[in-house]
Structures are given as structure tokens and as C-alpha cells.
Design the sequence.
């Protein structure tokens, strides 16, 4: 009796390609979901999307980052993550189609995804070690298995001449396996979200339970007339929810104030010190109105805001530890602040200790710092752009020299020293507005932190400069509102603003990019008067 003859395996048909692509998508979904679940149980920042996104930010040229901030604003991180997910989705679809012909090669491609994620996670500045590789590795293994199994259900089963009804792919098996993969992945994703949320619950509770003491040195009341009554002009104090946020953190760190520590050490420090949050609360707190400006702020841009900060005078703390500025013979000329997310920011010691209100800030506009703005503690230094002063989620301060160490942004082409340039902005009317002829109120803000604003001028088209009405000044560390009653005539017009600071320096008309030390130039808007 002869054995039935086995027919040779045929190449996959084109009709199966969509199902193969679906298999790749389900495998990618499974890999990401399981990876995020593992990250939720270990460290959320070690998840593959966050790790790869962080690595991409670290390696992106400064000009590209500046372009992203300019076009996407504070949503730049969202667009980056969506871009990563889109690339991963295309990669997964391609692997599914590849696996239909080369099953093991497709599964190996998913494992390659895991290697990339693991290398990105362990190579981050805030990595805690090899355990950061676990989310990507475990997720990739699960994704590879899912792809191998699903594609196996699509491959033609051996057919024998005696059993023609058994020919073709395993439809029932594919539906069951695909459904199980989808449900299991969704469950893993929900588990990951739950675990990630639990990781920050202690931090949320520590902020919720915090009652800031009354500052020993209160900020004076905002002067009457500091806010002109002109619709459309920025409020004098920027609400926390409206305050700009520009940083590299894809996941906002949630630090428990009860376990937070700050280490101060380095050149000129008589004795290294580690402080707790309660240690800072026991010191005298001061309250100050200070305007911050991001170096990525284009001419006329939105990345400037004014808040009432509560904190500890950093210069007093450093002086207690024996630190002296270079002008008094101190060996350190750079203060390097390190964040829990691995960011490093360098500030001139001379500026921090020259008498300005450089703070270790704990509060913002009457409440504990929001997580997005650095809870539990951040630095605030009037007169310096944020990339050389405003370290959020700070955990370490080292006194060193500019010659010995280049912080994060300096390594990427930005300046070592960056005092804020005198700037001004027209808030109203908006570009391309169509006001009626007659009196039109032109208004906005001007800033020159730690120097103060002395004068603001408006020019209509190519006419003469005319002095605007300045609102009352709070301090030289805050922006200043201004207004100008323009007698508008019909037609198209260009309105231009410039400011003069307290030193007598007039804001330059020379247009420069934000890189390496901040944009410059006059802000103008075009309107059509009807």
C-alpha cells in the first residue's frame, strides 16, 4: 500500500497579504502593550516609546528641535510620540508581510525592535541600569511569538490527494489567535496604565498634602496700573495652566516630596550637603515676582511668562556652605544643576550670587509647583534664559567650571552663558486683524529681566517712533505692560514695537535665530483697517 502523495507548499497568495499585515500590526500592538505593562511595574520612563523618543531628542540637531518648537509649540513631544508610533506601525505592517514568506525572519525583526528599545532605555542619562532593558526585551519576545503564531495560521496547510477539503490556511485558528492577541494586548495596555499611575500616587499625595508656609519675605502687592485695561493684552501674572512648558521630558517626572533629596557639592563647597524637602521648608522662604523666558522664544513668540514664586534664596544656601563667586576668589564659575530625568543645566556662579533673587522654588502663584513645572523643587534665576538657569525636578547641584564640564544644551551647540535679551511683543491687535478706523488700542508686553524696561515705542509703517504708555512697574525682574492709542486710518498698515531697557540699550532690529543664545529683532504685525 503506497502513502498518499503530499503536494508541494505553494507561495502565499496576494489575497493573504492584508491578513499578514494585520498580523504584523497585532504583533506590534502586543509588543508595545506588554512593554508598557512591564515598564509600569518597573520604571515608566523605561518604556520603549519614551526611551526611543528621548534618545531621538538627544540626537536631534538643535536647528531641528528649534523648528519643532516653533511649529508645534508645547505639543512637540506629542507629535514626536505620534511620529514614533506611526513609524513602528509601518515597520510592523512590513514585518507581517515579510513573515508570510519568511516566518522566522519576520519574528526576528520584532526582536530587533526590542534591541533598539533596550539600547535606548539603558543609554538614557536617567537610566537606572540593565533593568531598564526589560520592558523592550519582554515586549519584543511576546510580539515575536504573536507574529510567528498568527502567520503560521496563514501559511497553506499540507494537502493530500485523499483529503482535498483540508487544503488552504487555518481560518478558524487565525481568527481565534488574532482575537486572543488583541484582547490580551488591550489588557496589558490597561495594566500598564494602571501601574504607571500607581507609580506616581505617592508623589501626587505629597503635593496634595503640602501646605506652603507663609514666606518670611513677601512680594509686594502688584502695583495698581500694572495691568492696562486693554482687551487682548497678556495678564500681568500668568496662570499656572497657561504658563509655557519647554523641556525634553516625554513623561513628566512625578517626584515624591517626602523622599526627595538635593545634594550640593563640588569646588569651593566646604562640606557637601544633602537636603530634604522639609529642610527647605524650615528655612526662611521668600516670595518674588519673576518673569521667565525660554531661549526658544522667537521674536513675538509665546514662551515668556510671569509668576509669583515662593522659594529659598540659593545664594544664601551656597554661602553657608563656603561657596564664593569668582569675583571673590571662588574656584567655581559654573553651577551645574541635575534633574531627575537626566537633564543638566549650567549657570554662572557669579550671576547666581550677585544679589539677584535666584531661588530654589517650591511654589508658583500661591500653590506648590505643578508637576509640569518642576515639583517639588526647581531653580529660578532672574535675567537668564531657562536653558542656563531653570532646572526643573532638581536633585543635584555641583560647583565646577565652564572649562571642565559642558551641560546638555552646550553639547548641542547652544551658548554657555545666555542673559535674556531685551524684548517686546504686540499682543493686540493680532496679525491680519481687521480693526475699524479710529482709535485702536495697540498693547503688549516688554521684558529685560534684571535690568528693567525704561521705554517702549511704536512705529506705524515707516513713520516716526512714538512713545507708548508704560504700565506701572512691579520690579525690574518682571515684564512690563504697555499700550498705545493709535489713530488708525483705512488701508493696510504694519505696526512695529521696540523697547529700551534701564541701561539705555535699545532693542536691536537685527534679526537672529534662537540658536545659540536667543532670538533678537523687532516684532511687527500687519493689519487692515476698514
Sequence:
Amino acid at each position: 500500500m503506497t502513502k498518499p502523495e503530499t503536494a508541494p507548499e505553494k507561495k502565499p497568495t496576494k489575497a493573504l497579504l492584508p491578513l499578514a499585515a494585520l498580523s504584523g500590526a497585532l504583533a506590534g500592538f502586543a509588543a508595545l502593550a506588554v512593554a508598557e505593562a512591564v515598564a509600569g511595574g518597573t520604571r515608566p520612563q523605561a518604556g520603549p516609546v519614551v526611551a526611543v523618543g528621548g534618545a531621538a531628542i538627544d540626537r536631534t540637531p538643535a536647528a531641528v528641535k528649534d523648528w519643532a518648537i516653533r511649529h508645534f509649540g508645547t505639543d512637540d513631544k506629542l507629535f514626536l510620540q505620534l511620529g514614533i508610533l506611526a513609524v513602528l506601525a509601518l515597520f510592523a505592517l512590513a514585518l507581517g508581510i515579510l513573515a508570510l514568506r519568511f516566518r522566522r525572519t519576520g519574528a526576528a525583526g520584532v526582536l530587533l525592535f526590542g534591541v533598539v528599545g533596550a539600547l535606548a532605555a539603558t543609554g538614557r542619562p536617567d537610566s537606572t541600569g540593565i533593568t531598564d532593558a526589560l520592558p523592550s526585551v519582554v515586549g519584543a519576545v511576546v510580539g515575536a511569538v504573536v507574529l510567528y503564531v498568527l502567520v503560521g495560521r496563514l501559511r497553506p496547510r499540507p494537502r493530500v490527494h485523499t483529503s482535498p477539503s483540508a487544503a488552504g490556511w487555518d481560518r478558524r485558528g487565525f481568527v481565534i489567535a488574532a482575537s486572543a492577541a488583541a484582547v490580551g494586548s488591550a489588557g496589558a495596555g490597561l495594566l500598564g496604565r494602571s501601574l504607571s499611575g500607581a507609580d506616581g500616587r505617592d508623589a501626587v499625595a505629597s503635593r496634595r498634602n503640602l501646605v506652603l508656609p507663609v514666606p518670611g519675605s513677601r512680594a509686594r502687592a502688584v502695583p495698581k496700573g500694572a495691568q492696562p485695561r486693554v482687551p487682548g493684552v497678556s495678564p500681568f501674572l500668568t496662570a499656572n495652566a497657561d504658563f509655557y512648558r519647554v523641556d525634553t521630558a516625554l513623561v513628566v517626572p512625578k517626584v515624591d516630596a517626602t523622599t526627595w533629596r538635593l545634594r550640593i557639592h563640588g569646588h569651593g563647597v566646604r562640606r557637601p550637603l544633602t537636603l530634604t524637602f522639609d529642610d527647605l521648608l524650615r528655612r526662611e522662604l521668600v516670595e518674588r515676582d519673576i518673569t521667565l523666558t525660554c531661549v526658544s522664544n522667537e521674536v513675538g513668540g509665546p514662551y515668556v511668562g510671569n509668576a509669583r514664586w515662593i522659594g529659598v534664596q540659593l545664594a544664601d544656601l551656597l554661602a553657608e556652605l563656603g561657596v564664593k563667586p569668582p569675583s571673590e576668589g571662588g574656584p567655581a564659575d559654573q553651577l551645574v544643576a541635575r534633574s531627575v530625568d537626566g537633564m543638566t543645566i549650567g549657570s554662572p556662579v557669579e550671576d547666581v550670587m550677585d544679589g539677584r533673587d535666584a531661588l530654589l522654588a517650591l511654589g508658583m502663584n500661591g500653590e506648590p509647583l505643578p508637576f509640569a513645572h518642576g515639583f517639588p523643587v526647581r531653580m529660578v534665576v532672574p535675567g537668564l534664559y531657562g536653558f542656563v538657569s531653570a532646572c526643573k525636578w532638581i536633585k543635584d547641584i555641583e560647583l565646577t567650571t565652564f572649562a571642565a564640564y559642558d551641560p546638555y544644551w552646550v553639547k548641542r551647540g547652544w551658548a554657555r552663558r545666555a542673559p535674556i535679551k531685551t524684548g517686546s511683543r504686540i499682543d493686540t491687535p493680532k496679525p491680519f486683524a481687521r480693526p475699524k478706523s479710529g482709535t485702536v488700542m495697540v498693547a503688549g508686553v516688554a521684558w529685560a529681566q534684571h535690568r528693567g524696561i525704561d521705554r517702549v515705542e511704536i512705529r506705524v509703517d515707516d513713520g516716526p517712533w512714538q512713545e507708548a504708555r508704560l504700565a506701572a512697574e512691579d520690579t525690574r525682574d518682571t515684564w512690563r505692560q504697555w499700550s498705545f492709542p493709535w489713530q488708525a486710518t483705512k488701508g493696510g498698515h504694519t505696526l512695529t514695537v521696540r523697547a529700551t531697557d534701564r541701561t539705555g540699550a535699545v532693542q536691536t532690529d537685527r534679526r537672529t535665530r534662537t540658536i545659540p543664545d536667543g532670538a533678537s529683532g523687532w516684532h511687527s504685525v500687519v493689519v487692515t483697517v476698514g
